Amino acid sequence: ERMSAGGQMALTGDIDNYPGFDEGIDGFTLGMKMQQGAERFGARTRYAEITGIDLADKIKRVKTSSEELLAKTVVIATGANPRELGISNEQRLIGRGVHYCAHCDGRFYKDKTVVVVGGGNSAAADALYLSRLVKKVYLVHRRDTLKATKIYHEPLFQAENVEFVWNSVVEKFITENKVVGVKVKNLVDGKSNEIACDGAFISIGRMPVTAFLNNAVEIDKNGYIVADESTKTDIDGVYAVGDVRTKPFRQIATAVADGAMAAHMAESYLSEGVE
Length: 275
Known about the structure:
By secondary structure, the chain is α/β, with parallel strands linked by helices. Helices cover 20% and strands 26% of the residues. It contains five helices and 17 strands. The protein has helices spanning 27-40, 102-105, 121-131, 153-158, 252-271; strands at residues 14-15, 25-26, 50-54, 60-64, 68-71, 74-76, 80-82, 98-99, 113-117, 136-140, 162-165, 168-175, 179-186, 192-196, 199-202, 206-208, 238-240. It is elongated.
């Protein structure tokens, strides 16, 4: 069974890094193809929102907006949503100059100018990746040094087309039906200025879709489900796969690997004779 926990669909934009599609494939189409493939082998799909969940007993109970489902095993694959800046017009401009995945959408900005917002590992990796595609990258960070690990510092500082905008935050998107610039405020002197750009990539972290669980499984300090490469959670028969679990690298290929592992682990668990 596949259910929504109220989270947004994570697969958006064109995907260049998933194998088997020479011309790339958009996330929605890839998701539908995967669903159809699973249904060919007997999987059934339910479209519903989870309203309650009880995983403590051997028979798990998942209440949805339309029914209650009973299961001996549960695989949680609700993903993580990009953290938004929370400024005016951000939602309306998604896909029209505002993006949250450089590897998905960066190729649309070849030889153009972009802004990357953030200072952690994801922002540094996005800025470095984009610097190899675009004409100019402005990296806007609210502090005066990167939070990203040192491995990113030297290549970013050496990139001739990367300019750092320290101690600053994006206040506003400047638009003409799409993003044509950003208004940036310096947190030290309070002054604002505008940066002309063709697009903005928001890289300030992600929010795992785990609130609906009400701590039914162990959650780490960042809200992700605690599960290693085995995908096993702290509850027998419950597994976490994809972006929702603790892991060092989040891409579709690694999520697919998680799914295969969870299926294997669930089968092994059931073969033990769970009553």
